[in-house]
Amino acid sequence: MFKFLKGVVGGSGTGPKDLPYNIGEPYPSAWGSWTHQRGTSKEDGSSVSIFSLSGSSSQDGHLAAGRNGVKRLRTVRHPNILSFLHSSEAEISDGSTMKHTIYIVTEPVMPLSEKIKELNLTGTQRDEYFAWGLHQISKAVSFLNNDCKLVHGNVCLASVVVTPTLDWKLHAFDVLSEFDGNSEASNSAMLQYEWLIGSQYKPMELVKSDWGSIRKSPPWAIDSWGLGCLIYELFSGMKLSKTEELRNTSFIPKSLLPDYQRLLSSTPSRRLNPLKLIDNSEYFHNKLVETIQFMEILNLKDSVEKDSFFRKLPNLAEQLPRQIVLKKLLPLLSSALEFGSAAAPALTALLKMGSWLSTEEFNIKVLPTIVKLFASNDRAIRVALLQHIDQFGESLSSQIVDEQVFPHVANGFADTSAFLRELTLKSMLVLAPKLSQRTISGSLLKYLSKLQVDEEPAIRTNTTILLGNIASYLNEATRKRVLINAFTVRALRDTFSPARAAGIMALSATISYYDMAEISTRILPNIVVLTSDPDGDVRTKAFQAIDQFLLIAKQHHEKLITGDTNETAGTGVPSIAGNASLLGWAMSSLTLKGKASEHGSLASANATTTPDLTTSNPSSGSYADTASSAVNISDQPRPSSPTSTDGGWGEADSGLLQEDHDTDKEGWDDIEPLEEQKPPSLASIQAAQQRPVVHQKSQNTSFSQPKTAATRTSKAGDEDDLWGPVAVPAPRTVPHIVNVQPAAPKEDDGLWGSIAVAPPKTTSRPLKTKASAALDDSDPWAAIAAPPPTTKAKPLSLGRGRGTKPASARLGAQRIDRNSSGS
């Protein structure tokens, strides 16, 4: 057999050729005659540890004990016992001689003595880490003694190794044997190989080879003595050289001293069981041990315990040894989040621990877990991810964002929770720069189009803000198609004053993307009407924007005069210095998460009420109090749609958006009336402003005496119309059309009167209906409802009743009036 191995293996001296692992540099120390070396897998390059033991012949006593260790390590499995991967025995040439070598391949580990030097812990942190390690080794020894009825025989510092996650594991099973007090043959391995154990680690009964006494002792007697030796070597920092040194207890912590003395009792039967050491010792009750133990049995905890634990974990992690937190707690936390056993607050602790890593380590240890969490259906996890996206968003690659993150984040745009919709919207500030043009045009803009008509005013406002901030990431064709429509047709018409202000600032911030024709025909006419807005902040921003756009127009005019035609109409205009800061308040409102105290510190150019109103709150009534201070909303009837200003067409507009969402368009192509219907010239607007003065005089002279009250009502309605001077005048053929004014309760329609289709002509019969309906301005349906009954003494003078009815028959008369009017 050995000749066959010799022929296959060869004599390179670096290890057997058939071993599927590469052997690396050795560690300075190892247990017994073994050599502990680093290694890697030939298949995938993963790290391993390789233990090798050589002898001059196959019958060497060290090799025989080594084979016993290989067999035991392969068959005994426990979380605190070294994990076995592979073993091999070969005959290798060493110069002129042949050596028989045993190889054991295990998980990557490091000698405990080397790891202690590397960590260099002191004080409380050292004691906490030693407590955790001793806790693990005690569990391994207890498993062997109490559960398996096995005796390790040589528990000491050299028989303990440490994993990359800083877990302590027991190995060196060469002397491991069964323990049975009734069988004389049960200690065969111990009898054969007890000479491998150093005399300083042997208890008195083993030194004397009193096997009868050993069989009568409890199975943990020898290993409890070994635990005492391990404790001494740990806290003294020195290798035990003789048994008498164990009497020096000056290094042992006071809380551990009673248990230490019981472990080293001279009477084997009185030595402390390792199981009781774990359960009863006060030394093992510290923050590190309790934290790791909680994480390891996380699945057994209820939701209340988990929530409380993870909320305390970020502060607790700062008090624990940093390297233990990063190498032990962080992997446990990542695994718990990835497999769903951790609660949402655990993400805060994960990101805090991740902030202590280098960029490369963060991308390897934390980022993959975060990417997987985006696919979670747990709403609390999704909220936590979006709230902290600024902490890890920059580390995400464009490919990961486009292919793995955005498809899951986009579900939040249509979520029923307004709070989650807003968080999703805010996250686009971080994610949008990493999205491809196909995703932006084909998906993101569709969602933003729908959010601009969201029922929450703060979401509508922040959508406009977001569009202004991501405009630079849109291609030129998309900007031409989307920006002006989104800012003018929607934002400037919004009933929420901060949304109108955001539209003005977005136009100013994106001024470099518009050519002169767009500024003069589509932007300035829409901003000018806001100079008489009910909200002072909107008026201020409107005047500022007008000054900026007019400056651009003057520069363009001067270039035309001087003959400078280098800049064509479609090249876009240069931005004015300071435009970059116009959306500064918008950025703050997206990151301050609704704290009014922080919003108050924004630039003085913005009204203090504006930032407060741009962050939604899941609780009801969060806008009612503050909005009333900015705009007297009670004076303006609320339309059926949040952004509708055309008297009830908001639902139809929403329907169009729903259809467009399924197409390849972004959702703004259906709201381009300003391109399809060219606005009137300046002369037409000036003429429209002058006509109402002459027209009112003709109305006063044309009305007959019985209709003076109706005329006063019409005049009052015209005075309430803030935008009357720019409205298209009523047809001259029907001078009484002014009585139709109460039929449109939304006064904001006057904003677009100059470019709207003229009102339809009406006959004299609806004219009388509107005159009676004007008596009740609070009823939005008065314009289309049947006229109420009259109680005047002469109903026949109006040509509607059949005679005066008694007061008691009033209800019947009302039904007769409806039938007669409907006939």
TrEMBL record:
<dbReference type="InterPro" id="IPR021133">
    <property type="entry name" value="HEAT_type_2"/>
</dbReference>
<dbReference type="InterPro" id="IPR011989">
    <property type="entry name" value="ARM-like"/>
</dbReference>
<dbReference type="GO" id="GO:0004672">
    <property type="term" value="F:protein kinase activity"/>
</dbReference>
<feature type="compositionally biased region" description="Polar residues">
    <location>
        <begin position="604"/>
        <end position="646"/>
    </location>
</feature>
<dbReference type="InterPro" id="IPR016024">
    <property type="entry name" value="ARM-type_fold"/>
</dbReference>
<protein>
    <recommendedName>
        <fullName>Protein kinase domain-containing protein</fullName>
    </recommendedName>
</protein>
<feature type="compositionally biased region" description="Basic and acidic residues">
    <location>
        <begin position="658"/>
        <end position="668"/>
    </location>
</feature>
<feature type="repeat" description="HEAT">
    <location>
        <begin position="366"/>
        <end position="404"/>
    </location>
</feature>
<dbReference type="InterPro" id="IPR051177">
    <property type="entry name" value="CIK-Related_Protein"/>
</dbReference>
<feature type="domain" description="Protein kinase">
    <location>
        <begin position="1"/>
        <end position="284"/>
    </location>
</feature>
<feature type="region of interest" description="Disordered">
    <location>
        <begin position="604"/>
        <end position="729"/>
    </location>
</feature>
<dbReference type="GO" id="GO:0005524">
    <property type="term" value="F:ATP binding"/>
</dbReference>
<feature type="region of interest" description="Disordered">
    <location>
        <begin position="742"/>
        <end position="823"/>
    </location>
</feature>
<dbReference type="InterPro" id="IPR000719">
    <property type="entry name" value="Prot_kinase_dom"/>
</dbReference>
<feature type="compositionally biased region" description="Polar residues">
    <location>
        <begin position="696"/>
        <end position="714"/>
    </location>
</feature>
<dbReference type="InterPro" id="IPR011009">
    <property type="entry name" value="Kinase-like_dom_sf"/>
</dbReference>
<feature type="compositionally biased region" description="Low complexity">
    <location>
        <begin position="780"/>
        <end position="795"/>
    </location>
</feature>
